Amino acid sequence: MSNPRKRYRVLMVEDSRVSLEVYAQRLERRGYHVATALSAEEARGELEQGLPDLILLDVFMPKVSGFEYVRELRADPKTARIPIILISALSDTQHIVEGLELGANDYVTKPIIMPILTARMEALLRSSELVRRLEVQTELLSKLAAFDDLTGVYNRRSMFHHLEAELSRCRRYGRSLGVLMADIDHFKRVNDEHGHLVGDQALRWVATTLQNELRSMDFLCRYGGEEFCAILPETNRAGVARAGERLRAAIERSLFDQGGVQMSLSISVGGASWVADEGADFPDLLERADTSLLEAKRAGRNQVRVANEAVVARPS
Fold first, then answer.
1. What is the DSSP letter of 220?
2. N or C: which end of the chain has fewer CB within 10 A?
3. What average pLDDT does the segment 108-134 reach?
4. CB contact at 8 A, 190 and 266
5. Which of 129, 226, 245, 295 is catalytic?
6. What angle do CA 11, 16, 19 make, to 5 degrees?
7. Rounded distance, CA 224 to CA 212, Å?
8. What is the DSSP letter of 154?
9. Of 3.40.50.1370, 3.40.1190.10, 3.40.50.2300, 3.40.190.80, which CATH number belongs to 9-138?
10. φ and ψ at residue 77, rounded to 5 degrees
11. How many CB atoms lie within 10 A of CB 308?
12. Can you state the angle between helices 156-173 and 285-298, rounded to 10 degrees?
């Protein structure tokens, strides 16, 4: 069974009340939901109630002409992309070109021939709908490119982008920056004993738990496998140590309970910090944090280790 035709919302602006009622009734019979306005002022009120899918706009109106109102609509981000069809008794080329150059999408002349008008409306509505779908798909692809599809946190590619941006800010303003590397202890045992489906659930649970412990300004990323990286702006070595312990403790005190499986998990955490001066070279913060993570693993896991000294950038 086919889906019913979408009932598009149309705003018709026409200074003749009789013409407005006649054309609105004809469009309603053709399946459109029509809002009407006798002037640009009334049209503004209608737009505050909700945006239409298309606007039919008479050129010759008192106070604010159709041409002037097109310019106003195109200047407003909320209405800049709504399709507009101008309606006029004049059919000279210069008049039509002026309306199109101002931002109208199409132009019909009076007396209106309804089959022609509705055919042009449908063409514009189809194009507008296609553009909206492409925008949604583009936004989705952009999100997929930036986020890890399993855990929902930023992915490795985004991690390097955020790290570079934060380091650039630190170099410019002389700020501090911290990095934490966290690895789930004995994660292979989780997959071996409970299967990869539970392992995936555990990864999502850890990501959510870590995210809840971080500040809104921090960036949590999945570095790879069962390893996560947190980028901590405005954080010195002491702050890195506190944040690392907060993440470790949150995992230790929480119980994973999903899919009929209950188990305790732990993480090992390594951290490093950087204090910047303008003109400094790019520091290898990740390597220092990763070295600290290895130290936490060797110390018996479920530990936090932070590089002894902050990387202090010195003018070249």
1. E
2. N
3. 89
4. no
5. 226
6. 70
7. 20
8. B
9. 3.40.50.2300
10. -55, -30
11. 9
12. 120
Report pLDDT digits (tens) over 229-277. 999 999 999 999 999 999 999 999 999 998 889 999 999 999 999 876 5
226 annotated active-site:
yes
Residue type, 155: N
Instruction: For residue 234, give the amino acid letter.
Output: E
Cα–Cα distance between 20 and 303 in angstroms, integer?
A: 75
CB count, 10 Å around CB of 142?
Answer: 10
Q: For residue 22, what are its two tokens? A: 């006649």
56 DSSP assignment: E
At the top level of CATH, the class of 156-312 is alpha beta
Any idea what DSSP says for residue 147? B
Non-local (6+) Cβ contacts of 286 within 8 A are 163, 179, 181, 229
Tokens of 160: 């390097």
| Least confident segment among 3-7, 16-20, 100-104, 158-162 | 3-7
Tokens linked to 108: 């019909």
Parse the chain into domains and list their residue ranges: 9-138, 156-312
